Amino acid sequence: PETDRALTFNNSPSVTIAPGDTVFSDPIDFDLAPCSKLAITIFFGEVPNDITGHPGSRTNSYLTPGNAVSAPDLSSAVRTAHWYFITGVDVLAGDQAAAVVALGDSITDGRGSTTDGNDRWPDFLSRRLRANPATANIAVLNQGIGGNAVVSGGLGPTAIDRFKRDVLEQRGVRWVIVFIGVNDIGEAADETIADRLIEAYRRFIRDAHAAGLCIYGATILPFAGSQYDSVIHENARQKVNEWIRKSGEFDAVIDFDAVVRDPSYPPALLPAYDTGDHLHLNPDGYEAMANAIDLSLFSR
Predict the structure, then answer these.
(1) How far apart are CA 59 and CA 116, in angstroms?
(2) Which residues contact 130 (CB under 8 A, 6 or more apart)?
(3) pTM beyond 0.90, yes or no
(4) N or C: which end of the chain has fewer CB within 10 A?
(5) 14-23, 58-67, 254-263: which has the highest mean pLDDT?
(6) Angstrom distance (rounded) from CA 182 to CA 279
(7) 8 A C-beta contact, residue 13 and residue 84
(8) Are 178 and 217 in contact (CB under 8 A)?
(9) Which residues contact 228 (CB under 8 A, 6 or more apart)?
(10) Burial (Cβ within 10 Å: 0-12, 13-18, ≥19) of residue 174
């Protein structure tokens, strides 16, 4: 209870959000330590049938009837592993603070991680950055959307459509890791998806460089045995990964594929990291991915 702070919106205790709008609260004086947990409680008046949400939050929300915004205990609330309405928290920080955006799909969103465990690969990366004195002031912004695609289809706006909002317009961002494309490949009817992905990556690179950002390309993980497994899809994955590794167009390459593939059968995930669907990783796999990232990339 002693940490309870009331939010206001243009000095009002409530706000009505029009469809499609984004609303910022007024700033509050609140000491938020790195990697700490923050609870945001909302009391709703009229709620439409369709609302903005994050279905793959891997973190519980608590639902209870009535106005409980200042309740010290929600022991009778119903748990649901989704987030609603809130898209981010901006923190006032010193001049040396900066952020890296992880742009991705469900593998970045954290499918296969532990609910309330904060063991997605961006979580592990954040803790590594914090523990390293040279990078202790760098935040990780997880912009993963489960089922998301780059050029067409998928869940939510495509990465092309959301790149400006989710990368370029994020406050304090200095670096971006592009790790997305497996859903485009997995849903494609032919190998031309590889060329469309490469063109999209080139667009991301141009836009990031125009904004003064460093942009790093991450290779697409193996998926043999999954719902996406086919010769066409594997050939497309190999072509995209070859371009990421050898084109020199990204400022650096993060080779996640090399970290988590099975050495005895490279088209597949290492069994120790496989959740069982042959597409998503468990926390050990996510930690291995984060540990493979060279932290000197964030000294540029």
Answers:
(1) 5
(2) 34, 35, 136
(3) yes
(4) N
(5) 254-263
(6) 9
(7) no
(8) yes
(9) 182, 185, 186, 279
(10) middle
